[in-house]
Amino acid sequence: MLFPLLYVTLELPKRIINDAIGAPADRVTVFGVDLQQTTFLLILCFAFLGFVVLHGLLKMRVNTMKGVVAERLLRRFRFGLIGRVLRFPRAYQQQTSEGELVAALTAEAEPLGGIMGDAIATPLMQTGQMGTILLFLFLQNFWFGLAAMAMFPVQVWLIPRMQRRINVLNRSRVRQVRSLAAEVGEIATGAATLRQHGGWTARMTTISVRLGRLFNTRFDIYRKKFFMKFVNNLLTQITPFFFFLVGGLLVINGSLTIGALVASLAAFKDLSSPWKELLTYYTAVQEVSQRYQMIVEKFDPPDILTDFLFETPSNASENPMAGTVSLSDVVVQDDMGRQLLSGASLEIASGDWLCIAAPEDEDRAMLAELLLRDIAPVSGQVKIGGHDLGAIGQHSIARMIGHANATPYIFRGTVGDNVMVPLTMAPALQLSKDDLEETRRSGNQLGWPAPPQPTDAQMAAARHDWQLLVSAIGAQKSLLAKALDRFLSHPDDSALQDQLTALRESIPAQIDQLRLKGAIDSFLDDIYFDDLTLAENLLMAVKAKDDWIGLNSTRKLSDLLVALGLLDLVIEQSLTLAKALVDSFDSDTTGSVLFRRLGIPGDILPQLQKVIENANKTGENLKPADETLLLSLQFNVPARAFDRAFAKKVKHAIIAARPKAKTLADPTLADRYLPLQPDHWSDRLNVLENLVFGKVTPAGRKHLEKIRDQVVAALMQSVGEDALFDLIQRLPTGLRGANLSQQIAEHISLAQVVVKRPNIVILDRAMASFPAPVRHASFALLREILPDATILQLEAALPEDGSHDNQLELRQGRLIAVGQDTDHAPEGGETSDLHQKRSALRKAPLFRELSRAQLRLLAFSARWVDVAPGQIVFRKHDLPDGAYLIYSGAIELYDEDETGTVTFSVIPPPGTLVGEVGLIRNDPRRLSMRAQSPVTLLRIDPEDFLSIIESDARTAFKLIQYLVGYIGGGN
After folding, report:
1. CA angle centred on 704, ends 703 and 710, rounded to 5°
2. How many secondary structure helices (H) and strands (E) does the chain include?
3. Which of 2, 136, 542, 618 is the most exposed place for a label (fewest CB within 10 A)?
4. How far apart (Å, rounded) are the C-alpha atoms in residues 78 and 588?
5. pLDDT at 699 over 70
6. pTM greater than 0.85 (yes/no)
7. DSSP letter at 414?
8. Is 792 helix (H, G, I), strand (E, B) or coil?
9. Above pLDDT 90, what percent of the chain?
């Protein structure tokens, strides 16, 4: 339809010129109908207009659908990539930064959408348009059609080759700009050093050379680029040259009509557009195809987990598997081919509790990931409930196995949202029919039916189990104390708001019993509240939104101050405060935390500077706009920010004007300010401020814990347990759990297992930050809730009073009985010498918790030192040349006086690290060291030792603990 319409729009101009305008008589016969020449002209012209509009509408529809196809394909592409992220192996996840994945999914994938939409439509449309135009030209004259396409082969051959040369220069230009940027960055950072030492001449010469090279490169780009355009335009214009020359001769000779020549020229002009579109499309495809390959490679690791999106949860849930765990000759390797687990075989019967002690974090994580199928064994077989783990659907694994660890990931939302993640496998969003249809067309539907939503009874049971866990670990008080800082503003919170509002009469009285004078400014007192703005103090209300009070509201408040006779006083105060701001901040410090805390937009400060300059001019009054700006400062920033710069006389005047202000205020201000009423909950105050109906003062913040404890005690005494649990459940977590403590995060991890009620539980140092009695109570509750579950407990060391039935140790990649010696067996791929060094370093308390990779690096760089009896290793006051680990033999650390008499002597046992403090402090040796018998030492180079301290936070913290004990022992 599109191409016939295009042909008609090309044919009609020729008919208008030849048959209407160039008609030999004033009457024209068309299809047997006799028409006047002007009537025929009007018919053809309006027909031409109609076909042009229709052709344009069709093109618009095609382009719109191209955009729709592009967005659908881009949506499908992104959805597939995100689905692949869920199946990344754990090792690849750890190696790939989140920033790379986000950039690939957003900015890098965005250009693909346009090419996806153009993939079929652009070649088809542009080729069809070119074919239609060429057909028209051939029908007018064979030589016209041949001339129109004569230059195409030359352009196809020549232009891409010229463009490739320009692309090479462009890449060179980018590299030169990056080098220049690095050079400029160095100069900007080291400008003071260059001024001091006179090095700017050499640097500026280097910059001049770089700029010269960049100029030459850009000049070459311009020459080649515009020469290419010249050649392309020349080749394009050669065809009209022949049209004018040959066509003119044909018209003069009568072989061609003038209308046909004009129409042919117009058609050729239209021919250049689709040709350019095809060339542009070809270039874009070449560029984007490379981008596509790079993105696909990023999301296609070689060992990506098998696609689990086509499992049907309903079928899997009908046959729950038993909680038996079986490992048969399982071998697990890291990405370097080193064995983490060497031929392990293990049988855990359903309902058993096995505790495995693995000192290294990597070993514990490896076992958990193996059973969760985050990693796959190189050989051997893992079975769950008699079924091969590799063949079990991911939904079955998620339902059967619960995993709690010491470092869980907390999603942004609420505590309740995170705890109930195992019960919210079904989508919570309710989509409309149109959205569902669009989802289907975009290929964003999952390949399996959604699992059923949990019933009300299941949710109630899960909530009850969670409450039992909270009580068992004694977390209710801490969670409630944390919840006091949150805001209750959701419509579902109305019932809870009413219960808490009823406590306003009793809680302040209980806090008064603590005798914390001046700790709370009550809204019932007739005082000025420094934590509220001037407008809030005047109206005894709080802003409805956390935004900057705009011009309209400021003028209404200004009118209120005029009615109260306070405008001049407040403007005078505002001018003083503006001067304080301008004196304290400048354009360089408006980005500081202190300035952002004030909530003042950055562009306000320069405006205040101009207002102050105008005010300092003698005899000149402030303009209305300047007054409005000054007033907005006090209407948005509380007095607390200005300390004593905020005059007491202004505070007293505001307090005195409150009764009148309520009656004189503009009624529309009620939309901007919410009144503070003793019998109503305020959405703009947090729970604590609502309960005490006031603000905690700076003097009261040092007693904040006492106040919280008192309020929590009152809540637990007066409010029902379910209501309090609602408060806990809606506690916001923040991004990655930023609002929560480590203990709350660990509690969430265990609570997820409790509410899931799985067949198999993996406890990877779960509740590690809690005291031993609390851990024991939480695990006992877990067994009470899940009496038939199989529990695998992974710990750094075997607990003394654990509830486990059996115990094993995982050392050097082998599962062994407790106490069995494995020092003789090196890890897979390890030499006996490297293994011997690793075993020796592992005995040192400072290196005991080093990761396997760090320990290997340290062992590789350490060197054996054999010392004969009586040989001195180092003397007192020597500069430190390394740290020494005593491997075997008796060695003496001693001190002697000027006469050579030994005044102090100690023989440290094997496994002792000597000289590490001197390396940290870079101090001379304080003692001498000599061998009492044949001694073997392991020497660690200072640079290697310090690099471990710098790169491993746990080792650095352990060293700090050691140094504190060392200094304390010295005292």
Report:
1. 95
2. 38, 24
3. 618
4. 40
5. yes
6. no
7. B
8. strand
9. 10
